[in-house]
Design a protein that fits this description.
A hairpin with a 5-residue loop joins strand 3 and strand 4. With 118 residues, the chain is α+β, with helices and mostly antiparallel strands. It has helices at 24-35, 38-49, 54-61, 65-77; strands at 81-86, 89-94, 99-100, 106-109, 114-117. It has one domain (22-117): Winged helix-like DNA-binding domain superfamily/Winged helix DNA-binding domain (Arc Repressor Mutant, subunit A, Orthogonal Bundle), CATH 1.10.10.10. Helices cover 38% and strands 19% of the residues. The protein is built from four helices and five strands.
Length: 118
């Protein structure tokens, strides 16, 4: 009896494991940390409904301005949200809106995995 070793794409080992030095697991972990924080997850959900100003987000989340600013900075750096200036007002919105899955749940594709909001 012989066993055939499956062929894998360059950079992968059999079984789907990537070789050391591949940035994909680190990138995925960073994205999961970003959206895994409850306040940032709530910000994403609010921005899914429509773009919002920092004042609207502060009111909806009952957060001090400095804490909201921190969370928005983390989300911007990770590429989840962007900001548009209109005069003196800032408007935050999602870079890639959440999609609706087949069962009606909102879904965000992180590139490494997909999260479904219930």
């Amino acid at each position: 009896m012989t066993a055939e070793i499956p062929k894998t794409p360059a950079g992968e080992r059999a079984g789907g494991m990537r070789q050391a030095g591949d940035p994909q697991p680190e990138l995925c972990a960073e994205r999961l940390r970003t959206v895994g924080e409850p306040t940032r997850l709530r910000i994403l959900q609010l921005l899914q409904e429509r773009q919002r100003t920092p004042a609207e987000l502060r009111h909806a989340l009952d957060l001090p301005a400095n804490l909201l600013s921190h969370h928005l900075k983390v989300l911007r750096k990770a590429g989840f949200v962007t900001v548009r200036r209109e005069g003196r007002l800032l408007h935050y919105h999602l870079v890639h809106p959440l999609a609706e899955s087949e069962d009606g749940r909102m879904t965000i594709d992180l590139g490494c995995c997909r999260l479904d909001f219930s």
